């Protein structure tokens, strides 16, 4: 039987992942402040995105995702290893997205990947200190221009 603290930690971490998904999908960028540590390292490069620290990524996301009118981040099936106030996880992400082309045409495509995270317990609860995407597949993707450079967010 799992100790009560580990049960609580696992539920809190799953909630953290859900809050990330809702923040991104609702474009509530400030909600990410309650998901990441202020100095988190984030690497979205395997899916064609940016790599940087949380404040840079937070500024970059609205610019990078502007060409996608709809998307959903569905996280499931987490392998979680908790050691005291730190944890490591690998979580499946299924990400349907809608791309709007220059002529206004829309195309739905799918991305499957894993999030590889290092999490830390803070005074405000569990937070993601490192997130790296690990690509699995992309299906039905339209031709996409490269994601905007990090500086384009400013």
- Radius of gyration, in Å, reads 16 Å
Compute the number of structural domains. Answer: 1
Strand content: over 45%
Query: Regarding quaternary structure, how should these chains be classified?
Result: single chain
Helix/strand order: HEEHEEEEE
Tell the overall outline.
Answer: globular
Distance from N terminus to C terminus (CA atoms, Å) equals 50 Å
Q: Can you tell me the residue ranges where pLDDT is under 50 for at least 5 consecutive residues?
A: none
Fraction of helical residues: 10-25%
Number of helices: 2
Count the E strands. 7
Mean pLDDT: 95
Helix-strand category: alpha+beta
Q: Which CATH top level class fits?
A: Alpha Beta
Query: How would a textbook summarize the main sheet?
Result: 7 strands, mixed
> Do you know the CATH architecture?
Roll
């Amino acid at each position: 039987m799992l100790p009560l603290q580990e049960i609580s930690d696992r539920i809190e971490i799953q909630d953290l992942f859900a809050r990330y998904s809702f923040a991104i999908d609702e474009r509530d960028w400030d909600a990410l402040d309650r998901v990441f540590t202020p100095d988190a390292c984030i690497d979205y490069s395997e899916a064609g995105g940016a790599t940087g620290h949380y404040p840079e990524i937070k500024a970059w996301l609205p610019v990078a995702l502007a060409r996608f009118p709809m998307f959903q981040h569905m996280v499931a099936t987490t392998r979680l290893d908790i050691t005291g106030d730190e944890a490591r996880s690998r979580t499946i992400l299924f990400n349907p997205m809608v791309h709007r082309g220059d002529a206004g045409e829309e195309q739905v495509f799918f991305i499957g990947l894993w999030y590889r995270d290092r999490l830390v317990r803070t005074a405000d609860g569990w937070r993601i200190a490192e997130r790296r995407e690990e690509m699995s597949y992309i299906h039905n993707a339209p031709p996409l221009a490269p994601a905007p450079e990090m500086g384009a967010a400013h």
